[in-house]
Amino acid sequence: xxxxxxxxxxAPRRAGGFLPPFRWIFPATTLGLILFIILPPITLxxxxxxxxxxxxxxxFPAGISFELYRDSGPxxxxxxxxxxxxxxxxxxxxxxxxxxVAYALVRLKFPGRxxxxxxVNLPLVFPPIxxxxxxxxxxxxxxxxxxxxxxxIVLGHTIVSLPFMIQPIIAALQRVDIAVEDAAxxxxxxxxxxxxxxxxxxxxxxxxxxxxxxFARSISDFEITLLLTTPEISTMPIAIYQAFESGSTRxxxxxxxxxxxFAVGVIVILEVAVRRVRWx
Amino acid sequence: xxxxxDLSIQSVTKSFGSNVVLNGISIDVEPGEFMTFLGPSxxxxxxxxxxxxxxxxxxxxxxxxxxxxxxxxxxxxRDCGFVFQSYALFPxxxxxxxxxYGLKLRKLPAxxxxxxxxxxxxxxxxxxxxxxxxxxxxGGQQQRVAIARAIAIRPxxxxxxxxxxxxxxxxxxxxxxxxxxxxxxLGITTIFVTHDQEEAMAVSxxxxxxxxxxxxxxxxxxxxxxxxxxxxxxxxxxxxxxxPGTVRQATGATVMVETAAGLMEASHHDSRAGENVQLALRxxxxxxxxxxxxxxxxxxxxxxxxxxAAFLGAATRYEVEVQNGVxxxxxxxxxxxxxxxxxxxxxxxxxxxxxxxxx
Lengths: 280, 359
Hints:
- The structure holds two protein chains of two kinds.
- By secondary structure, chain A is mostly helical.
- In chain A, 71% of the residues lie in helices and 0% in strands.
- Chain A is built from ten helices and no strands.
- In chain A, α1 packs across α10.
- Chain A starts with 24 loop residues before the first helix and ends with a helix.
- Chain B is of the alpha+beta class.
- In chain B, α2 crosses α3 and α2 (95-105) runs parallel beside α4.
- Chain A binds chain B through residues 177, 179-180, 182-191, 193-194, 197-198, 201-202, 279-280, and chain B through 53-55, 74-76, 78, 80-82, 84-86, 88-93, 101-102, 105-106, 133, 135, 146, 149-150, 153, 159.
């Protein structure tokens, strides 16, 4: 579920592919996969630029109109801004919490280490709606009532995003020779400087992988945001949901297309950065 | 570049749970000395070395470097160069940056850093590789970078944890001598950890043989080789004739030991009459002569039959069955007279090369 590191695909082992009786499997499955990955966004795109409700074959637009984008422009921009206002602090907080936790899990021995390792992965197996329900109780009535909903949403997103930051960093730290830090120490570096100058640079690609995954998790979150939000906060998924709820499928499609174009753009940039940041 | 300091380890103990790793170790290392901790894995040698470097504290005891108590100082305040078994080079830095790392932390002027890096890279023969990254170097070259990085800071003490164990046999032998020459040139007090007795003999001024958290013997390579203080040392440094027996009579420097092969004279440390001992005798200290030929009357001698003969080039190895099934292994130097399988031979050796060691 969580990729260790965004590594480029390894070269194929042999050119021939499958044995003759099974040759059809590869093209068939690939074609099926591609269709089901690209058909939903194509349908949405068609719906959002169609000038009427019905689509040709249920997929292609019958006429072109950008009227919906024009009308919902301010709402789209606002939801992108709200999403960023939550995703950026979530990424930062996940890094600040995730890095020490990952380091402790890989390098230190302490009581409860196994328990902590399980605990940080819990949000991956927990249905988000259940977690959201619990958080809602805490923040709306419980001891944290009165905390700004922005803070509540960032905290909620951080909890469910942490495994996406921690797992790639753990995998990277396990590949770093533990003696490297000792060497830096013996050469005169304090513990923090030894880590920052000799370990951190080596694990930067994995940190960026974590950043991309946490960012994706945060901007696509629906359940947690929905239960913790107030009318003043409208992230991209919330805006899409509200647009569909308002009765216009086409408006929903327009908001969905615009916001996701932005999200995909950010993640593509991060992915490129992960590949480029290897300087040795 | 001489910056020799003396090191004193005083009654150091360390346990991990119920496992005693160091059992009250005391060692004094002279300034400029090349000292080796030799022992099997688990004897505590690496734990002690890491402790000297600041990676782990003793449960009790003190470590003094140049008169300063460093027992509880963090590694970065100890001024010890450390060469790790895995080399632990910084993979994202060039050779030059690796070597300069410790100098930059000392905030030396850029020109001095540059000249010092050039000097140490020259010493290890890697001037041409300064701009490479560690991954672009061979194992032997990486090893040299690790050594250069450790000596660049001109440490009071150089610590090396099995630094040659990841190299192939040929390279290991060559780097051994280079290391020894470099250490003498710098005059730096050095502690070297290894489980390879041949390596320890080749590089050290003195060797400490360790076993189960205790010091078994401290001495020069010649002392360790020629006069092992315990059965463990004898066995570990390759004495492979061990004949069990009982001390009959102790007279000054030598004892008479009764063995299955008869009464044999041996040197000893503090054996008493009636004690069970093993008589240790190096194969290369035994000479062979055809039976019946007269040999010097002093020393030990036993007649027997050659039951195995293997020509190995530099030496010929024999097994000679003497009395009551006792077999002596003999290594005869190249060029010595060959003895055929089944022939009767006389084994003889100087008394001082036979050691009665408490069993």
